Amino acid sequence: MEAQTNSAAPKGVAREQKFLRFRLLPDDDALIAMLPPEQQAVLRSHGSYAKRAEEFGVAIGTIRSRLHRAREALTRLRAERDADLAATAEALRAEKGLH
User: Fold this and answer.
1) What is the separation of C-alpha 32 from the centre of its chain, rounded to a whole number of angstroms?
2) Count of other CB atoms within 10 angstroms of residue 64
3) What is the model's pLDDT at position 51?
4) Residue 34: what are its φ and ψ, rounded to 5°?
5) What is the pTM of this model?
6) Count of alpha carbons within 13 Å of 56, Cβ hemisphere only?
């Protein structure tokens, strides 16, 4: 069998590192308010997975799952907001005859 020469990380590794540098932004508050309460709470919490698990009284795996789902949902909401803003800006430019 031939060794792989592709230098890209395996798909699973890339997926696990997807939110490695995830940060909450100042204008995320309205979007976070749209998430389920447990996702809001875990996004706003701080510390290690173990500390958060102890704080919420759940397993570390539960914290990881909640954070992953919350980050995915917030990323999706950011994209929708940005698309709406871009569409509004484009409509305003078209209205003014600017392209």
Assistant:
1) 10
2) 15
3) 95
4) -85, -10
5) 0.70
6) 25
